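To the wet lab folks,

You asked to see what we're planning to order before we commit. Fair enough. Below is the target structure as tokens, and below that is the sequence we designed to fit it. If anything looks off to you, flag it before the synthesis order goes out.
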């Protein structure tokens, strides 16, 4: 499916990030990162002197709406490229549609790995870029007894499967595993908090997402737990959720991600400054926002070379391409459509910022199937 406009017609792309619903807390930030990149591209003259125009829809944190709106974008609106999706369930809802219509979905969210589609460019972290390093850090610094809490959909279940393998292979144990509805309120976490008190783990590993993340951490804090001693550690909690729950609640908790707002690169300093100037000083960047931002830059670079929106041509130009992202130099790995990204572990300080306690010196090669690392392989930690 190709769309090659002539003359001065703008380039049009679809955007699917929820502005309402259970996961709007993080998806709104991804929308902002996407729109910032588009604004900057257009301010610089567009792509080959043609404006980049976003067609934005709100899927309302509903997987079925993601699918329906993806179909609308590809058929009625005639776009071939979509930036979007946060939850793995929404990505999986959109995947067969972009494959059938030969569209290209850019997916800027960490996920559980073990997937490949020629019609998706994965720019979020795969398990070897976050779960492996976090498991190692937690086992080394806090202890061997883990308690899992997750939202009840595909990513938390699969992420916990991988984390369980990592923990058990290295001598640890999972002493509890509980799941809650995607829209869980504080009341649904009360029995889980009681069970954590009973089981006395060394670490709580959270794959809770969206507004429910805030409710979990607040209930945990109000129950008297000190995250500096018994931390909640996560791959999904970012600056967006920390801001909503409060710095006092989050202080001492941990996360692993390719990017935190505190990354010390010249590119990131300029990026954060531009973002705050555009959206306000009180706003924070985060890992999902940063991926949403740099993937638009990579797309624009490929489109400038292709000068047409043909999916097959764009993909061939995207694979193997690099850019200087706020996190550092990253690359779209041509072997798997995933991105070589940095690995970092951060701990929330008293101001609500993640202070980096461990990081890779260069981008880590994407290994979404854990072929080279292997779940729990000690070599993965060195």
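Sequence we intend to order:
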């Amino acid at each position: 499916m190709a769309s090659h406009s002539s003359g001065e017609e703008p380039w049009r792309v679809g955007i699917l990030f929820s502005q309402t619903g259970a996961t709007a807390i993080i998806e709104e930030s991804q929308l902002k990162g996407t729109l910032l990149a588009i604004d900057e591209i257009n301010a610089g003259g567009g792509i080959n002197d043609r404006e980049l125009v976003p067609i934005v829809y709100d899927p309302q944190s509903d997987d079925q709406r993601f699918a329906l709106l993806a179909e609308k974008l590809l058929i009625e609106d005639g776009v071939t490229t979509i930036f979007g999706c946060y939850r793995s369930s929404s990505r999986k809802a959109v995947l067969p549609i972009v494959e059938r219509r030969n569209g290209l979905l850019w997916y800027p969210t960490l996920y559980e790995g073990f997937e490949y589609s020629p019609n998706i460019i994965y720019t979020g972290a795969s398990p070897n870029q976050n779960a492996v390093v976090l498991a190692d850090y937690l086992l080394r610094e806090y202890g061997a007894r883990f308690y899992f809490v997750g939202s009840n959909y595909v990513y938390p279940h699969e992420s916990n499967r991988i984390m369980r393998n990592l923990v058990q292979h290295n001598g640890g144990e999972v002493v509890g595993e509980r799941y809650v509805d995607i829209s869980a309120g504080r009341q649904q976490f009360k029995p889980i908090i009681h069970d954590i008190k009973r089981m006395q783990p060394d670490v709580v590993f959270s794959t809770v997402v969206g507004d429910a993340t805030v409710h979990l951490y607040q209930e945990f804090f109000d129950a008297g737990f000190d995250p500096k001693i018994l931390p909640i550690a996560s791959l999904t909690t970012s600056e967006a959720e920390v801001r909503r729950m409060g710095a006092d609640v989050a202080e001492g908790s941990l996360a692993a991600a390719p990017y935190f707002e505190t990354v010390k690169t010249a590119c990131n300093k300029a990026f954060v400054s531009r973002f705050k100037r555009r959206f306000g000083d009180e706003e924070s960047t985060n890992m999902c926002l940063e991926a949403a931002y740099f993937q638009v830059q990579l797309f624009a670079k490929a489109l400038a070379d292709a000068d047409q929106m043909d999916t097959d041509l764009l993909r061939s130009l995207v694979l193997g391409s690099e850019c200087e992202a706020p996190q550092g130099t990253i690359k779209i790995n041509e072997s798997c459509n995933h991105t070589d990204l940095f690995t970092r572990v951060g701990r929330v300080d008293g101001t609500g910022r993640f202070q980096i306690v461990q990081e890779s010196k260069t981008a880590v090669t994407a290994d979404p199937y854990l072929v080279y690392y292997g779940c729990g392989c000690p070599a993965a930690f060195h």
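Structural context that might help your review: The longest strand covers residues 173-180. The chain is about 40% helix and 20% strand.

Thanks,
Computational group
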